[in-house]
Description:
The protein has helices at 2-7, 12-42, 47-54, 63-95, 101-122. By secondary structure, the protein is mainly alpha-helical. The chain has one domain (2-122). Helix 2 (12-42) packs antiparallel against helix 4 and helix 4 runs antiparallel to helix 5 (101-122).
Amino acid sequence: xxxxxxxxxxxxxxxxxxxxxxxxxxxxxxxxxxxxxxxxxxxxxxxxxxxxxxxxxxxxxxxxxxxxxxxxxxxxxxxxxxxxxxxxxxxxxxxxxxxxxxxxxxxxxxxxxxxxxxxxxxx
Length: 123
């Protein structure tokens, strides 16, 4: 399924709405849940401050905090890798869309905007 998405073999509407919008919302929802769970365990500290502060005394590290940190990192990696596959797939699918040149370029403009917003969120 992801290979077909990456190669742009699905229709533009399926690729954009099902994989692009719906898939991104599901991945983002998992990331938000993992952020909320992690925030309850870190007691207001950042991840870096929490682990550096407790590195001096290893007995103070909470196993739930470690578990939720791993869940957060996994959700973040899932979102980043899915976004990459989705952007490439929608771009390639729009190249094969011959019904409307205007719709092809609007879709590509939206993908560029999405990629820029995603990069801004990372950095």
